[in-house]
Specification:
The chain is an alpha/beta fold. Helices cover about 35% and strands about 10% of the residues. One of its GO terms (molecular function) is transaminase activity.
Length: about 475
């Protein structure tokens, strides 16, 4: 995936009923032009229609859009018969060997009946700080305290709060990356978003020289997921430390570490990669980390997350919760405290990594049997960034492949949603993400098997049709 050689589409004002010219880079295929999914995508995303220079209506994230399309095919009526490989959530059952049992009942204290502090209750803030000090700050003079932690109602709320307190700046973000960044980057006008494309040939890695280049041209805030969604790659030391050294005193580094527990680079020993390890002074280094119970503690429904950083940042992030989201559910905060004991967390991460690595290897093996070309093995998260370009033309792009999977009751996320495009300037057919899908191996193994069986039927069906068409053309 690369932008080299691409001519970016120019959106000129036009009459209301005049169709907008498509990509200047290449003409879309007939399967793309005739696709229901393509028409739905353009209808739902104003930037891909005429008058894209106007402020577009807010679109949904990729997962929500794909789920809505699945509803139209009966997913809502009978979700158990489907394989949802699109939702970015891990299995939540208590079946993983070695993991602690999740609470089934929560006692609500009198404090839990009251409004909570918008920055979170102090005992949970202390527990988060203690966890990071134990796992990432051993032997370091500078230690996190409760004042370096803000509790937020989920990752998206945390990102929105961070965006709300940023000053005028160029904010650099990478492509491909987490779909919800798109709306966050387009909601606020206090910074300008600058895309930084990563190369497929380089396995979508972020290198220090890329960071240095962006800072040299004036970028003062950098946002990225690490481990990376959707590519399943992680930046680890010494490369991560070098990046932080480059940013120190020059740029604010926002690290989305929600998948930090899904680390397969250290033989599933339970260790977690975090930028917290390379921070020199917790109050001087402009490193903001966001994580929570959602992914690595497998509790997405709790909506308990945290932001860690310098006290000045945290104070501002805590305050803006009063007008943005009102703060996090207090009873769930109280219930979360005991989960964050450092020894317990290390044991939990070891079990988590072993289980999800096994699922990753199963999915990779099945996809290779089906005939997919896999350029690299992801070393983290529970996602695969699946290249469709070697498939028959009728399903060689993300939207058509997604549409075909719906017929088999399988959900994936078209890659176009990870081409962060907050100004809606780039056309669908110019996107380097157009011929990819993100596939999640977060669900239970039985769901994965069902989903891969459905994908195999899709690929075989379209291969047969493609061969028949080639035979007919010869005669």
């Amino acid at each position: 995936m690369s932008f080299s050689g691409h001519q970016i589409s120019i959106n000129r004002p036009s009459h209301a009923h005049k169709p907008r010219r498509l990509s200047t880079n290449k003409e879309p295929s007939q399967s793309e032009l005739g696709s229901i999914a393509h028409r739905q995508f353009r209808t739902a995303n104003d930037g891909h229609r005429a008058h894209a220079g106007l402020d577009p209506s807010r679109a949904s994230t990729g997962v929500v859009w794909t789920t809505e399309r699945a509803y139209e095919h009966g997913f809502l009526d009978d979700p158990a018969s489907w394989a949802n490989l699109g939702q970015g959530a891990p299995e939540v059952e208590d079946d993983i060997e070695g993991c602690f049992e999740r609470p089934k009942h929560i006692d609500i204290s009198m404090t839990g009946r009251e409004y909570g502090p918008t920055a979170g209750i102090k005992p949970l803030r202390e527990a988060v700080a203690n966890l990071y000090n134990a796992h990432h700050r051993q032997g370091k003079e500078s230690q996190y305290t409760w004042e370096n932690v803000c509790i937020v109602p989920g990752g998206r709320a945390g990102l929105i709060r961070i965006a709300a307190v940023l000053n005028n700046a160029y904010l650099g973000f990478f492509i491909p990356d987490y779909t919800a960044y798109n709306e966050m980057l387009s909601l606020f006008r206090n910074f300008s978003s600058i895309p930084i494309p990563l190369s497929a040939a380089d396995k979508y890695r972020i290198h220090p020289d890329k960071i240095a280049e962006e800072i040299a041209r004036g970028t003062s805030v950098i946002l990225t997921s690490n481990p990376r969604n959707p590519s399943g790659q992680t930046v680890r030391n010494p490369e991560l430390a070098t990046i932080q050294d480059i940013c120190r005193d020059r740029a604010t580094l926002i690290m989305d570490e929600f998948y930090s527990g899904y680390n397969f680079t250290s033989n599933c020993d339970g260790s977690v990669i975090s930028a917290a390890e390379n921070v020199e002074d917790v109050d001087d280094d402009d490193v903001i980390i966001i994580d929570g119970l959602t992914k690595r503690f497998r509790l997405p429904g709790w909506r308990v997350a945290w932001v860690i950083g310098p006290k000045e940042f945290i104070k501002a992030i805590g305050s803006c919760g009063s007008y943005l989201d009102g703060g996090t559910n207090v009873p769930f905060q109280e219930a979360a405290i005991s989960m964050l004991e450092p020894t317990k967390v290390r044991s939990e991460m070891k079990a988590l990594q072993t289980h999800f690595k096994d699922k990753r290897d199963y999915v990779l093996g099945r996809l290779e049997e089906i005939g997919f070309t896999l350029d690299y093995v992801p070393d983290s998260t529970f996602y695969l960034w699946l290249d469709l370009s070697t498939l028959p033309p009728s399903i060689a792009d993300g939207l058509n492949f997604f549409q075909a999977c719906l017929q088999e009751k399988v959900i994936v996320v078209p890659g176009i949603f990870f081409d962060l495009n907050p100004s809606r300037r780039r056309d669908l057919f110019d996107s380097p993400c157009h011929h990819f899908v993100r596939l999640s191996y977060g669900p239970r193994m039985d769901v994965l098997k069902k989903g891969l069986d459905g994908i195999e039927r899709v690929v075989n069906k379209h291969r047969e049709q493609h061969e028949m068409m080639k035979t007919e053309m010869r005669y």
